[in-house]
Design brief:
Blueprint: E1 25-27, E2 35-40, E3 51-55
Antiparallel strand pairs: 1-2, 2-3
């Protein structure tokens, strides 16, 4: 018998620009004043994936150098320029 460990929406969903799924929107504190709008919530994927749109409000302000030992992280820049250090 095959079991599915993932529960997901029976239908697709749409999250508009500037809006957040489940109204999950956060303002980063400390380093920047950027906002994060959750587009695909961990609630949608049993904690396996989260996708968010970050809007920059701090000039030249992005996340500080950091690592995620157990996660992948990627960026897709929609507007402007971003400097990455790998």
């Amino acid at each position: 018998m095959k079991t599915n460990i993932f529960s997901r929406e029976e239908k697709g969903f749409k999250v508009k620009a500037g809006e957040a799924r489940f109204k999950e929107s956060y303002t980063m504190k400390g380093v920047t004043l950027n906002t994060l709008d959750i587009k695909i919530s961990a609630k949608d994927t049993n904690g396996n994936l989260a996708v968010f749109e970050q809007t920059g409000h701090t000039p030249k302000g992005g996340p500080p150098l950091h690592i995620h030992p157990f996660q992948d992280e990627w960026f897709y820049v929609l507007e402007g320029e971003y400097l990455f250090q790998v």
